[in-house]
Amino acid sequence: MEILYLWLPKEWGVQEITFILYSKRYNNCMIPSQTFLDQLHIPYTAFSFPLSTPKGASSVALALGLKEHQAIKTLIFETNKEELVLVMVGGDQIVILGYLKKVVGSRNIQLASSDKVIQTTGYKIGSIPPFSWQPEGFRSFLDSDMMNETTLAVGAGVWGNEILISPINLVIASQAIVVNLTDRKKSIFPLI
Fold this sequence. Notes:
globular, three-stranded antiparallel sheet, YbaK protein, five-stranded mixed sheet, disordered N terminus
């Protein structure tokens, strides 16, 4: 029998301790997004929050003790060419559609319907992980401003569970293209 000792901050509460023990003890019961990161050897921290937490990036950020900006919104957009793309921005940010149209190469783009999101990702809106479900060739975009943060919070695919990950590891896991989608004062494509 394996015994796992964890010393966690008191403010994390019992729910987080239970989740960590459960996921470490029973690898076959881990959330698919976590298994995906483990298989790629990408470091992350699994975190949970009360299921009673109101939906939305600001509520999740508050529950995790982060800034709203660090709680990533994973948005699925659909083009008139029937292409779906994943867009990741901070919880306090709004996508500039004109910028997204240029990046994607489509004049007509809109948020995908909830049915289309479930059909494409396998997840309900509110906790879509930004990796592990994309077919080959699926395009993902991360707002360049997110690269200035040390830690980002992304949905794990199950409400009440979140993944804390560095921006560079998020780019690697999601195979995202980093572009400016939220700041009108900056170029869409960052200078390298």
